């Protein structure tokens, strides 16, 4: 795991050369077909040699939740075990990693500190203001909760902030327990200046390789601008440009800034994930030894 542009794919391929791994995609944009350039999927010839499960797995117009991912990834993991291979999740979507490993409870418990913060915010902007915030992250729940129903509104926002997932989505999913086998978590990091440079270079390369045409094709195929696929970083900014809402130069700037913000959010999430062994991405000394120890049973995961 690690932030965007940190070199996760290259490291995973190197590990797949050294160990009997089965690679499983853990990137929420790479699951979609037709989203290749803007998600930095490995080229077809690389994927032929190193298959990635759950890549090009869904149509961009189809919804795909963290629960959907956890169940699909666990099936792939069991299939890997049956082939005497070790499943290796690769990507930057922290919620996917957590759902896979820890499962999904139907509902989180109450958080007194968070509830107090929401009450404090309501005293400043009103419950109607918090209702607008809920509508932005869970339109379905907002549609059935009256702006004056402070108790239900508070709970819906509490659930979203604790889980990163809409209350309406959780209510439709059954519980999913944690996995029973040990897990080794490997994180890649880079100094901020180097990561920022990589992000800018990669985004400009994506544009040169046809990102605008890729977004045009998705829109022409009927993929809505409000779908999770086209809200992905890079795709959203290009879609705005194609609708005439911004200039090309401004789109490039916004795409780079949005990708940097994504990297910050990813790092914050992963830094809060317990049990991660961190390695510098441009000097990953020790990763192979750590994996060898784990597989030999000398160093267990959680």
Describe the structure.
With 302 residues, this protein is mostly helical. The protein is 54% helix and 7% strand. The longest helix has 26 residues. Strands 2-1-3 form a 3-stranded parallel β-sheet, with helices on both faces. Strands 4-5 form a two-stranded parallel sheet. Helix 2 links the parallel strand 1 and strand 2. The chain is built from 13 helices and 5 strands. Helix 11 runs antiparallel to helix 12. It has 2 domains: 220 residues, 3-Layer(aba) Sandwich (Rossmann fold); 60 residues, Orthogonal Bundle (Histone, subunit A).
Keywords:
globular; single chain; Rossmann fold; 302 residues; 2 domains; Histone, subunit A; two-stranded parallel sheet; mainly alpha
Instruction: Just give the CATH class of the largest domain.
Output: Alpha Beta
Stretches where pLDDT is under 50 for at least 5 consecutive residues are none
Main beta sheet: 3 strands, parallel
Q: For the record, what is the CATH homologous superfamily label of the largest domain?
A: P-loop containing nucleotide triphosphate hydrolases
pLDDT averaged over residues: 93
Helix content: 40-55%
Going by CATH, the architecture of the largest domain would be 3-Layer(aba) Sandwich
Q: What is the approximate shape?
A: globular
Could you say which structural class the secondary elements and strand pairing correspond to?
mainly alpha
What percent of residues are in strands? 5-15%
Instruction: Return the domain count.
Output: 2
For the largest sheet, list the strands in their spatial order. Answer: 2-1-3
* Straight-line distance between termini: 16 Å
| Rg over C-alpha atoms, rounded to the nearest angstrom | 20 Å
């Amino acid at each position: 795991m690690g932030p965007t542009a940190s070199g996760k794919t290259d490291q995973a391929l190197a590990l797949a050369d050294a160990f009997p791994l089965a690679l499983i995609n853990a990137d929420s944009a790479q699951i979609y077909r037709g989203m290749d350039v803007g998600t930095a999927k490995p080229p077809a010839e690389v994927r032929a040699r190193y298959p990635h499960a759950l890549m090009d797995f869904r149509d961009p117009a189809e919804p795909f939740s963290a629960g959907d991912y956890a169940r699909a990834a666990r099936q792939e993991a069991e299939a890997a075990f049956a082939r005497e291979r070790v499943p290796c999740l690769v990507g930057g979507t922290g919620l996917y990693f957590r759902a896979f490993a820890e499962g999904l409870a139907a509902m989180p418990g109450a958080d007194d500190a968070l509830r107090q913060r929401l009450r404090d915010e309501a005293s400043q902007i009103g419950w109607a203001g918090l209702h607008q915030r809920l509508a932005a992250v869970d339109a379905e729940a907002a549609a059935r909760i009256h702006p004056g129903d402070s108790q239900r509104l508070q709970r819906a926002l509490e659930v979203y902030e604790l889980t990163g997932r809409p209350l309406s989505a959780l209510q439709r999913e059954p519980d999913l327990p944690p996995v029973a086998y040990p897990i080794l978590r490997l994180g890649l990091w880079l100094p901020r200046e180097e990561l920022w440079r990589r992000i800018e270079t990669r985004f400009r390369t994506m544009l040169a390789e046809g990102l605008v045409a890729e977004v045009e094709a998705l829109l022409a195929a009927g993929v809505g601008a409000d779908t999770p696929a086209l809200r992905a970083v890079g795709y959203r900014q290009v879609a705005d440009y194609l609708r005439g809402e911004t200039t090309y130069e401004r789109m490039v700037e916004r795409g780079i800034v949005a990708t940097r913000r994504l990297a910050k959010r990813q790092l914050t999430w992963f830094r809060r994930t317990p049990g991660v062994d961190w390695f510098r991405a441009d000097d990953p000394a020790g990763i192979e030894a750590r994996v060898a120890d784990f597989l030999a049973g000398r160093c267990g995961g959680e």
